[in-house]
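Entry:
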Amino acid sequence: MQTWITTVSLDGLCAPNAGGGMGLDVDDLDITEAWVYEEQGRALDKWAKVLRAARTVAVDTDDVAMKRFLGACYKGYVGRMVNPDMWTATRMQHHHQPLWRAAIMAHCRWRGRRVAMRIARDTGRWPIRTMTDSWVYLLGDDQHIADDSDALGKMTVEKHTRLTEEMLLSFAAAETTHEVRLAIASAYGTDTDVREVGE
């Protein structure tokens, strides 16, 4: 297969399995071409810090509307980075950054795999559904997988529900990803565009 990947994805492919990587050697990847940029930097650090601080306050104060708004700001901007039609004004063209978006998404995937591997190692539990930086786990009574530390990017529980016998049967009978989504939506009493627990 031939494809372009970011340096973050390359790091992930070569990282050990236990760290969420594929454990490959660079020679296994048969790399034939690379684009290298001399400039490096962390252009979005201030923006991310402001959003992160606001989200922490929203979570601490149970402000669901603000938490959703901040999530939409982040997802909206990162999503628009790839679309040149969103940034036609000369003073806005620097926002068209498909490589930044690819690196951000790759970082989220790799970080998620690292956390999932740690949780699986510690508890034997794997997520039943993932979506970039949010996951759904089925847990028994008194099982706790959230990170209670003050670290940034930690796994936290954003919502949970106790499963009835009927809900458990729905999960056990699910054979496709769509059926799993329906079971999750039913458990949370939402439509099929359910938002999962996550980071």
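Residues 154 and 199 are 6 Å apart (CA to CA).
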